[in-house]
Amino acid sequence: MPTEAEQSTGVAVAAAEPAPAVTEAKADNESTSSATETVAAGAVPPVVDASTATEGSAPGRMPKPVIVAAAVAGVVLVALPMAFGGLLGDDNPGDGTKDAGYAQDLPPGGGFVPGVAAPPTDNSGGLPGIQPGAQPGQALPGQTADGAPVGQAGAPAQAGTPGGPAAPGAPAAGGGPGPAQQQPQRQGPPAPPAAAKTVSYEGTAGKGCGGGTGFTGVGVYSDGKAGWVNHGNGGCGTSFASIPMSGDANKDDPSAYGLWTFNTGPVTTGTCTVSVFIPNGDLTAVGGSPSVYRVYDRFAVEKGTPVGTFQVDQIANRGRWVSVGTFRINGAKLAVQLLNRGRDWSGSNKTYAHHAAATVKAKCQA
Q: Does residue 329 surpass a pLDDT of 90?
């Protein structure tokens, strides 16, 4: 059956720890004072069952158990609102921190989830690298779709980002034009250097030849087979002259010689390769063994110094061209002189040997 205290408060009171034994009985006023001091100290006084009240209580006064039960009920009624108020928090924002496990601002339709606070509406104190309003699976700046930061191992470089391939037609990383905008201009093979214009000259001099060339017999005279003898029909390459010898193999008669001249035209200064043709004939027509020649860079050979000299064994080279060497020229003039030194006798007999003066060819180059 519920006690009188339980009926008056409507709250069940738990049994408290047994109080220490009292050695002697005290007056009612002392017991009331003790109960009041115990409540003020915040301790829960022992609960005394009404059935255990002593029969010696004064008539007309409230029993001790009733007074103690009323005090306990008052303490409990005062402490419960304070406890629930601390758990639920204050309605005024900014008055202290909220208890752990409660959300600061609950989303619509939300509620309390133990140990988890509601997610903040901004990123002022959120996770690094996550922007407000990011949707699941959406790539954020500096982050690929799979969540790996750009530039780290395992993260594919995106087109158009530093370190990644430039998008087609977009400027390359670094601000420069991309491949589609900057293409090396194709050029053809370099033009070969302009070849230096070759200046050359080629001419043939002899009886009947022209083209700036000439042949002159100096000291010509006629004395049968002892003097100058002409052969051929007078045409270039088909005619030649036989020049009498001086009678001494080492001495010239300066009054008689053959002279071929060339006006080398465009080649004013350069070199000329000289060849002489030896015709066919007997000793009286072609008998130089050897015939001696001089080369000049002027026509007036009697006033100049030869630039070269050569000799040809005519008897051994009948019917052929003989290349005799290359000589320098100056002033677009070349002259070849055939000397008349040679023996035209054998013992006490006259042989009438002659030097053949046919054609001379010159090829010159500047």
A: yes
Res. 114 pLDDT band, cuts 50 70 90: low
Which pair of tokens denotes residue 128? 């690094």
Whole-number Å distance between alpha carbons of 351 and 316: 18
Amino acid found at 358? A
Q: Which amino acid is at 76?
A: V
Q: Which residue(s) pair with 109 in the sheet? A: none
CB 230 within 8 A of CB 241: yes
Query: Residue 116: beta bridge partners?
Result: 113
Helix (H) or strand (E) holding 71: helix 64-88
The model's pTM: 0.49
Asked if residue 340 lies in contact with residue 229, where contact means CB atoms within 8 angstroms, the answer is no
Q: DSSP assignment of 104-173, as one string?
A: SSPPTT---BTTBPPPPSSSTTS-TT--TTPPTTPPPTTB-TTSPBTTSTTPPPPTTSTTSPPPTTSPPT
8 A C-beta contact, residue 118 and residue 103: yes
Instruction: Dig out the tokens for 324 from the structure.
Output: 């005799």
Nearest Cα residue to 338 out of 263, 269, 277, 265: 277
Task: Quote the pLDDT of residue 2.
Answer: 45
Q: What is the pLDDT of residue 68?
A: 75
| Amino acid letter, 225 | K
Q: 187-196, pLDDT tens digit by residue?
A: 777 777 776 7
Measured CA to CA, the distance from residue 146 to residue 128 in angstroms comes to 16
- Contact yes or no for 341/251 (Cβ under 8 A): yes
List, for residues 161-173, the tens digit of each pLDDT value.
444 555 454 444 5
Token couple for 116: 């988890």
Burial of 357 (0-12, 13-18, 19+ CB in 10 A): buried
Residue type, 101: G
Rounded distance between C-alpha atoms, residue 361 and residue 176, angstroms: 69
Q: Residue 32 pLDDT > 50, yes or no?
A: no
pLDDT category of residue 60 using cuts at 50, 70 and 90? low
The per-residue DSSP string of 295-326 comes to: EESSS-GGGS--SEEEEE-TGGGTTEEEEEEE
Q: Are strands 320-330 and 269-278 parallel, antiparallel or unpaired?
A: antiparallel
User: Is residue 241 within a helix (H) or strand (E), and if so which, with residue range?
Assistant: strand 240-244
Strands 291-296 and 229-231: unpaired
Exposure b/e, 139-163, CB count within 10 A at least 16 = b: eeeebbeeeeebeeeeeeeeeeeee
